[in-house]
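User: Predict the structure for this protein chain, please.
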Amino acid sequence: MVEATDRSAVSPPTKRERHMEDSTQALPAVISKLDAGNRPGDVMITRRRMLAASGGLAALATAGPAAAETPTLTVPRKRRDGTMEIKRSGSQPSRKGPAEYFTGAVRVDPLFQAPDPAHVSGSSVTFEPGARTAWHTHPLGQTLIVTSGCGWVQREGGTIEEIRPSDVVCFPPGEKHWHGATPTAAMTHIAIQEALNGKNVDWMEKVSDEQYRA
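Assistant: Here is the predicted structure, written as structure tokens:
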């Protein structure tokens, strides 16, 4: 004889078990709706839909109620503010290198000054033969890109180095140096530097003729 089961000893079903039971009971209705749109002879498609429907419900049942209630969020891509800007050649006036900071004939052609919050700027500087900068440093360093001619560059304590087109010279922050043309050839380079607290260069004494020809 089979003994009657004491229902009071059976624990009530959990949320997950109730969710799985509800999902299983809903399966025939879902399959019926899928089959309603099939044409005669679409047996393979119907079976695939049945498998897809049963698989989807099983996944939801396994994941639990929380997964079924979580919406899918689409995060929009952020776009850069502002618009493209082209500074046409010749649209910015050239200026002479101030005699206070340069020796000889020097022409400075501004290229760009990045808007806030950036602090980088660039210019094209042309030195006639014998022309050079004074000794100086940059709080955040400087990069030179030689575009034409032949020039010289020197850091404090180092020897004079020759630079030619496509050479790139990088000065670290605070390194004392100078740069310019050779005695017989002009030189043009692009100078790029960043400002710190509104200042991108600290000028010092001029390079003497003895230092220049050493």
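The first helix runs from residue 15 to 36.
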